């Protein structure tokens, strides 16, 4: 193989590597996804409103029975609450140490009066998750 062909291939390979490295650094920054709206971290629930609209009359339900009410969550804002502030109809608080979180649902009203509902998506674990079953 002549020296000029080998040199051209090496130059082309270097250019490809540099271009791939630049794309790996540049493009993820441009395509950052908004955070998941409902995030659980231990005993803390964080609600992210990554939309350009304010959410008003916000109710957040934990396991269907426990609830917390927030007057509003601003556009691009967030709300945080420990799970033990969620209360059910008879005044009992959610006990994080003894109760598993199975469902989280947010309901709110958008500025145009339309309702908004957001459900937290949980990963199915155990045998059901391995076999593709639904929770």
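Q: What amino acid sequence fits the structure above?
A:
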């Amino acid at each position: 193989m002549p020296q000029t062909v080998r040199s051209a291939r090496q130059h082309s390979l270097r250019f490809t590597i540099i271009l791939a490295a630049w794309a790996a650094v540049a493009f993820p920054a441009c395509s950052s996804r908004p955070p998941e709206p409902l995030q659980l971290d231990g005993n803390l629930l964080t609600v992210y409103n990554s939309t350009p609209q304010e959410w008003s009359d916000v109710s957040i339900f934990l396991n269907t029975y426990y609830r917390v009410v927030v007057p509003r969550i601003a556009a691009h804002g967030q709300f945080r609450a420990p799970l033990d502030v969620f209360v059910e109809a008879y005044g009992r608080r959610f006990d994080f140490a003894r109760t598993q979180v199975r469902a989280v649902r947010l309901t709110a009203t958008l500025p145009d009066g339309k309702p908004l509902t957001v459900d937290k998506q949980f990963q199915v674990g155990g045998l059901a998750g391995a076999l593709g079953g639904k929770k």
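Q: And what stands out in the fold?
A: The chain has two domains: 1-31, 38-122.
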